[in-house]
UniProtKB/TrEMBL annotation:
<keyword id="KW-0624">Polysaccharide degradation</keyword>
<keyword id="KW-0378">Hydrolase</keyword>
<dbReference type="InterPro" id="IPR001701">
    <property type="entry name" value="Glyco_hydro_9"/>
</dbReference>
<feature type="active site">
    <location>
        <position position="549"/>
    </location>
</feature>
<feature type="transmembrane region" description="Helical">
    <location>
        <begin position="73"/>
        <end position="95"/>
    </location>
</feature>
<dbReference type="InterPro" id="IPR033126">
    <property type="entry name" value="Glyco_hydro_9_Asp/Glu_AS"/>
</dbReference>
<keyword id="KW-0812">Transmembrane</keyword>
<feature type="domain" description="Glycoside hydrolase family 9">
    <location>
        <begin position="110"/>
        <end position="571"/>
    </location>
</feature>
<feature type="active site">
    <location>
        <position position="501"/>
    </location>
</feature>
<keyword id="KW-1133">Transmembrane helix</keyword>
<keyword id="KW-0136">Cellulose degradation</keyword>
<dbReference type="GO" id="GO:0030245">
    <property type="term" value="P:cellulose catabolic process"/>
</dbReference>
<keyword id="KW-0472">Membrane</keyword>
<comment type="similarity">
    <text>Belongs to the glycosyl hydrolase 9 (cellulase E) family.</text>
</comment>
<keyword id="KW-0119">Carbohydrate metabolism</keyword>
<dbReference type="InterPro" id="IPR008928">
    <property type="entry name" value="6-hairpin_glycosidase_sf"/>
</dbReference>
<dbReference type="GO" id="GO:0008810">
    <property type="term" value="F:cellulase activity"/>
</dbReference>
Length: 607
């Protein structure tokens, strides 16, 4: 038989010898020989017509051959497959179940307390409230404040329980909150409160911008106060106030203006990504600081702030250092650091004077905060000459102050329950305690960030954790670890003050209109407040750890925004943030690269 090749050079013909070899090797091949024996078209077509039937037959035999395996092996294989399938199904079931029933992450006490402490600011808002205020018993109030004064004075925060707006403590509160955001924005975000605290700050700074002509280049007055404290003869909800409220301006108020400048400058860094608003805040801060110092800086010879019934400033030089430091951070203008590192200004401010209130940071005394802020510049930017000497003095002073907070120091007494007496047994101690806790924790974090293991306090070396431990003991006392087992933060734990000195919280929200005299019955009521002012830190106990839960005794039971600002700052600082720590750079974003001048040559003695 002649051999015929296909298109690829192969042969169509298979000999019998090849077929026999295939059978002997155990392989059967089925071919239609007639399809290849004739070249005629009909024969070729016939072969292709028979092909499907042959294919089916081949598949049938192949199928029969494929299942011709050992039954024992088959059974074992099926058992293994079944076991594996069951195991996979079980794992999938458990994973799905764990996914659907996973409990929410457990929040620590500091996170819960932080969230509630921030809510206090929502309860203190004045003006037309936003839809997301989330305090059910509060409504719009005092919408006509300052009508006829500039563009009106609606908004801002009531200072405490008496629906009065004081610019001085409000400014300090906004500065402290901004500082805490600049240091610990990552911790705020982890706690889910970053946007909330920024909203709180903006609500405050929006109001402060209304208290002076913030669009001008120079000003001659700012608003000191809106409203009048009249707790003795008038007790009504802010929503019920329908009478004109006095606006008290001042034309010479260096401490207030410098504190307001600090607040706007610090907030301008918080809102640096909102360029238009940040620029507006910087401009306002600049004209306020010039108004405070009259452009004279350390040579200021003007008067002091006017007297106030509740927020009298004991001096203004410390606000010049504090405000100037924040102005430098916000603008990078070297004239500010030249001012605040001037030995003359430090001398005026008595920055290095001991005294009973040395180290007591609060709305009236900014020495400790200013010194820590200036030390930050030295620790992270290393300015050198000509600033190093004064910055070093600031650093040594704040280190001494932080050391004085520790139990081994004799600068401050402690109650039997362990509360440090920073204001020497006077009323309302907690506001100063929270500020000290914030400064101590921040100081420890600065040491951590500079890889410094601790600090030498006198003859003893303390690891950095000692400063954080001090802060924890004080905040834990406030949250309930005290002799009374009472939380001084309303709404935290099951035992907290029930008779908070707060007009809005003490009157049922269904009472829409009443006179001053009619409301006095709620002040004198023996029943607990009908509204819980969540997160409010009250004034606190006395020097014997005693506490009077009495609505009429504001020294014990009145909360303030300045006090709560310190609490918020301390709580966020103490959150577990070993992986985050402080933000070293954001605060310095406006400071240009520093070119250090050469020191003057040494004096050569005459021959």
């Amino acid at each position: 038989m002649s051999e015929r090749s296909n298109l690829w050079g192969g042969t169509f013909d298979i000999t019998l010898e090849m077929e026999d070899q295939s059978i002997e090797s155990g392989h059967r091949h089925y071919y239609d020989r007639s399809a290849y024996q004739s070249p005629l078209e009909d024969e070729v077509k016939q072969g292709w017509l028979l092909r499907p039937a042959m294919d089916m037959e081949m598949k049938r035999k192949m199928k029969k051959r494929c299942f011709n395996i050992n039954p024992t092996v088959l059974i074992r294989s099926l058992v293994v497959v079944a076991v594996l399938a069951g195991f996979v199904a079980l794992v999938a079931f458990l994973a799905t179940r764990r996914h659907h029933h996973r409990p929410p992450p457990v929040q620590d006490n500091y996170t819960i307390a932080l969230q509630r402490a921030l809510m206090f600011f929502n309860a203190q808002r004045s003006g037309k409230l936003p839809a997301n205020n989330h305090v059910s018993w509060r409504g719009d109030s005092c919408l006509d404040d300052g009508n006829g004064y500039l563009n009106g004075l609606e908004g801002g925060y009531y200072d405490g329980g008496d629906a009065v707006k004081y610019s001085f403590p409000a400014s300090f509160a906004m500065t402290m909150l901004s500082w805490s955001v600049l240091e610990y924005s990552a911790k705020y975000e982890t706690a889910g409160e970053l946007n909330h605290v920024k909203d709180i700050i903006r609500w405050g700074t929006d109001y402060l911008l209304k208290t002076f002509n913030s669009s001008a280049d120079t000003i001659d007055k700012i608003v000191l106060q809106v409203g009048k404290n009249s707790s003795e003869n008038c007790w009504i909800r802010p929503e019920s106030i329908n009478y004109p409220r006095p606006v008290i301006p001042c034309s010479t108020c260096p401490a207030l203006a410098a504190e307001m400048a600090a607040a706007l400058a610090a907030a301008s860094i918080v809102f640096k990504d909102d360029h238009k608003y940040s620029k507006k805040l910087v401009h306002g801060a600049d004209i306020l600081f010039k108004f405070a110092t009259k452009g004279e800086g350390k040579r200021y010879a003007g008067g002091s702030d006017p007297p106030s019934n509740f927020y009298n400033s004991s001096g203004f030089w410390d606000e010049f250092v504090w405000g100037g430091a924040w102005m430098y951070c916000a603008t990078g203008n070297s004239s500010y650091i030249d001012l605040v590192t001037s030995p003359g200004l430090a001398k005026h401010a008595e920055a290095f004077w001991g005294g009973p209130d040395h180290g007591v940071h609060g709305w009236d005394n900014k020495h400790a905060g200013a010194q820590l802020l200036m030390s930050r510049l030295r620790m992270f930017l290393d300015f050198g000459y000509p600033y190093e000497e004064m910055l070093k003095n600031f650093h040594e002073q704040i280190s001494e102050i932080i050391c004085s907070y520790l139990p081994g120091s004799h600068n401050f007494k402690r109650t039997n329950g362990g509360l440090i007496e920073l204001n020497h047994g006077k009323p309302k101690p907690l506001q100063y305690v929270t500020n000290a806790a914030f400064l101590a924790t921040l100081y420890a974090d600065y040491l951590e960030a500079t890889l410094t293991p601790g600090w030498q306090c006198g003859a003893k070396f303390y690891p950095k954790d000692a400063f954080r431990d001090f802060a924890k003991t004080q905040i834990d006392y406030i949250l309930g670890r005290n002799l009374r087992h009472m939380s001084y933060v309303v709404g935290f734990s099951d035992h907290f003050p029930q008779y908070v000195h707060h007009k809005g919280a003490s009157i049922p929200d269904y009472i829409k209109h009443q006179s001053c005299q009619e409301g006095l019955r709620w002040k004198e009521s023996k029943k607990p407040n009908p509204n819980t002012i969540v997160g409010a830190m009250v004034g606190g106990p006395d020097k014997h750890d005693g506490f009077q839960d009495n609505r009429s005794n504001y020294n014990f039971t009145e909360p303030t925004i300045a006090g709560n600002a310190g609490l918020v700052a301390a709580l966020v600082a103490l959150l577990d943030g070993s992986k985050t720590g402080i933000d070293k750079n954001t605060m310095f974003y406006a400071i240009p690269p520093f070119s250090m001048p050469r020191p003057p040559p040494p004096l050569v003695g005459k021959p």
